[in-house]
Design a protein that fits this description.
Elements: H1 5-22, H2 27-43, H3 46-52, E1 54-58, E2 70-73, E3 79-84, H4 89-93, E4 98-102, E5 109-113, E6 122-125, E7 131-134, E8 137-139, E9 151-158, E10 165-167, E11 172-174, E12 180-183, E13 187-189, E14 193-195, E15 202-204, E16 206-214, E17 227-231, H5 236-239, E18 242-246, E19 257-258, E20 262-266, E21 271-275, E22 286-289, E23 295-298, E24 313-316, E25 321-324, E26 338-340, E27 346-349, E28 366-369, E29 375-377, E30 391-394, E31 402-406, E32 420-425, E33 433-438, E34 447-450, E35 456-459, E36 476-480, E37 485-489, E38 500-504, E39 510-514, E40 534-538, E41 556-557, E42 562-566, E43 573-580, E44 583-584, E45 594-602, E46 605-609, E47 620-628, E48 637-641
Parallel strand pairs: 41-48
Antiparallel strand pairs: 1-40, 2-3, 2-44, 3-4, 4-5, 6-7, 7-20, 8-19, 9-16, 9-18, 10-13, 11-12, 11-17, 12-16, 14-15, 17-18, 20-21, 22-23, 23-24, 24-25, 26-27, 27-28, 28-29, 30-31, 31-32, 32-33, 34-35, 35-36, 36-37, 38-39, 39-40, 42-46, 43-45, 43-47, 45-46, 47-48
Helix pairs in contact: 1-2
Bound molecules: copper (II) ion.
Pfam families: GlxA, GO-like_E_set
Domain GlxA-like beta barrel: 150-249
InterPro entries: Gal_Oxase/kelch_b-propeller, Gal_Oxidase_central_sf, GlxA-like_b-barrel, GO-like_E_set, Ig-like_fold, Ig_E-set
């Protein structure tokens, strides 16, 4: 293995210090100065940057600092960093909910309030370029010992087959002994369902869970037994049909709760719009774009803090609504890494996930067929118990159908992590994981970014849970898909553990943001500070001299279309890539993909051909890159690709 950058620097410094000792210079005070000076000299030298690239730290001015939990590249070329409450309960309480629009070409930024707490929601880009964010935080967790009022899940039932029922947030449920509990969210119940005829008619009540909390503090409101609860204020004829069933009301730890709200962000008007609610409340949901333009919505914690039991729904951008798919019931932990394969409707779950769920359920990687609902496990993963907080992504062009699973850690607050990289070749007749290289350090929360030269940047992360014990990995690597091997990249200055993200910019650089350490010191005594600096990586290809250029590009490209791309550098262009404008959060970047286009000659430029298979190119905004014979990419041009197999209107 090659020495890390810091080791290379130390070697240089050793030589300098040895010389200083010979000359009788006072070494100890000189050491740190020489070390730092030599380091700066080295990492800013042209030779170094040509080989390892370069990082630039951006200290965003105070009014524009956010706790970046989510990042998305928009079709405008700007980056939206979403904080919501930013994992700060005081911000949640005062509804100081933020997003920051950052323009990487000018460095300008603008704060845009968000209409609800999108902290830890799911996200993806829609075919028309809007960003969809679904779910987020309805309520912060309460740890053991911090719970003052007994609380629990109320299953609200509606036995009336003729009328839906909406119970507003704040609805009060009364126990058989007269204790009052208040619901923290609205409950919308459809009518009950009827089956059969006449006297054989069977009515099945509709039901929805809602979290309720005793109005009075103290143990008197604890009730460990199931009971039926009346709803305060309902007329008696309605109360016959609508009531609550509580399992137990306790003072135990309460997990985060998800919202059912969903919003889109329009990159043109730069405004948020509420769309229809999800069928389920979700915190830590995964949104996977599908080849037909719809969005598969899976997993999360529900409105009572429980892991969803496999309920799946699909968002349709034509109706702006979610519809449950009752036939899709596979159980996943939160933020499961689910990608669409090159067969429309056939999903692959790499086993990577982030957050919540039992050790024994939903952890196994597999193919999930959304046409049949079946799930087929994929064997061969190394360190299968270290997949929480792992990263996964298509590596190289998506046409090659090869995924990499990178790093990860044990479940929950486990100190264990791995540097394992395993590959999965979906083209194999019997797909199975095969061993790839190992990172120099174990890593949770690695940021993975596909670059236009087909390498993948792996950066950031920490060895222990949320950077505990000062374990942030200050290293970066470039994974080469042709050899399957790693090469060291320059070291980032900023450490990034939990709540971090990275995305490719149209100019070929990579923006990294966020990091939410549990502690700021190695002794784990000082509470952690959210990292608000942005750091941008310029890969080695930006230090090789002139870049090929794109003189013009069509605003849209269709599947199976051949288009001429005018360029003065046609003689040197070797490849063309469409890289999807992706979103990133919690190691779950399900919409990142690079599509290889066939390149041919054309007058005053090159011709490019878009693959016919829609499952390779889900509709939406992409960056078009021309790449020359040295692996140097042009600046990316934003183009819209689509529509899917079920055509979407303009
Ligand atoms: Cu989170």
């Amino acid at each position: 293995m090659r020495p890390s950058n810091s080791r290379r620097v130390r070697q240089v410094v050793l030589v300098v210090v040895a010389a200083a000792v010979l000359l009788g210079v006072n070494v100890p005070p000189a050491w740190s100065y020489i070390d730092e000076w030599r380091h700066e000299q080295l990492i800013n030298s042209p030779d170094y940057m040509r080989q390892y690239g370069h990082w630039d730290t951006i200290d965003v001015p105070e009014p524009s600092r956010v706790n970046a939990i989510h990042a998305a590249l928009l079709s405008s070329g700007k980056v939206l960093l979403i904080a919501g409450s930013g994992n700060k309960e005081d911000m949640f309480a005062t509804r100081a909910l933020k997003s920051l629009l950052y323009d990487p070409t000018t460095g300008q930024s603008r704060m845009i309030p968000v209409p609800d707490d999108m902290f830890c929601g799911g996200q993806t880009t829609l075919p028309d370029g809007r960003l969809l964010v679904a779910g987020g935080t309805q309520r912060y967790e309460r740890l053991d010992g911090a719970v003052t009022n007994a609380a629990g899940t109320m299953t609200v039932k509606n036995e009336d087959p003729n009328a839906p029922m909406v119970l507003p947030a704040g609805t009060v449920f009364v126990s058989p002994t007269g204790i009052r509990y208040r619901a923290d969210a609205e409950t919308a119940l459809p009518p009950a369902t009827k089956a059969g005829q006449g006297r054989r008619t069977q009515v099945t009540a509709s039901e929805k869970p809602v979290f309720v909390e005793a109005i009075d503090a103290g143990p008197a409101a604890v009730n460990e037994n199931p009971a039926q609860y009346q709803i305060e204020g309902l007329p008696s004829d309605v109360a016959r049909n609508v009531y609550g069933q509580g399992q137990r009301m306790t003072l135990r730890k309460q997990d985060y709760q998800g919202t059912n709200k969903a919003f889109t962000f329009d990159p043109v008007s730069e405004t948020w719009t509420r769309v229809s609610d999800m069928e389920f409340h979700r915190w830590y949901a995964t949104l996977t774009p599908m080849s037909d333009g719809r969005v598969l919505t899976t997993a999360g914690l529900d409105g009572t803090g429980e892991v969803l039991n496999g309920q799946t729904e699909i968002f349709d951008p034509r109706t702006n609504a979610f519809v449950e798919r009752k036939d899709l019931t596979h159980y996943f932990p939160t933020y499961p890494a689910i990608f669409e394969t090159d067969r429309a409707g056939r999903m692959v779950y790499t086993g990577a996930n982030a957050g919540y769920g039992p050790a024994e359920r939903g952890r196994e990687p597999g193919f999930w067929d959304t046409d049949t609902g079946t799930f087929a496990p994929i064997p061969g993963m190394r360190d299968p118990d270290l997949l929480e907080t792992a990263g996964s992504a298509f590596v190289g062009p998506v046409n090659d159908q090869r995924l990499a699973v990178v790093g990860g850690g044990g479940i929950g607050e486990s100190p264990r992590s791995t540097g394992r990289i395993d590959y999965l070749d979906l083209r194999d007749p019997a797909p199975h994981f095969t061993p790839g290289p190992t990172l120099p350090e174990g890593v949770r929360y690695p940021n993975l970014v596909d670059l236009p030269d087909d390498t993948m940047l792996i950066s950031g992360g920490s060895r222990d849970y949320r950077g505990k014990g000062g374990t942030n990995n200050h290293i970066a690597q470039l994974l080469h898909p042709d050899t399957g091997q790693l090469a060291p990249a320059a070291d980032p200055a900023v450490g990034r553990d939990y709540h971090t993200e990275a995305i490719l910019l149209p100019d070929g650089r990579v923006l990294t943001a966020g990091s939410d350490p549990l502690f700021d010191d190695e002794q784990n005594l000082v509470p952690g500070t959210f990292e608000q600096r942005i750091e941008i990586y310029s890969p080695p290809y930006l230090f090789q001299g002139a870049r090929p250029s794109i003189a013009d590009a069509p605003p849209t490209l269709a599947r199976d279309q051949t288009a001429t791309i005018p360029t003065p550098d046609a003689g040197h262009v070797r490849s063309a890539r469409l890289i999807k404008a992706s979103t990133a959060t919690h190691v779950t970047t399900t919409d990142m993909r690079s599509v290889a286009l066939d390149v041919g000659p054309a007058a005053n430029g090159v011709s490019v051909h878009v693959p016919k298979n829609p499952a390779l190119t889900p509709p939406g905004p992409y960056m078009l890159f021309l790449v020359d014979d040295r692996g140097v990419p042009s600046v990316g041009r934003m183009v819209s690709v689509g529509p899917g197999r079920r055509a979407l209107p303009d």
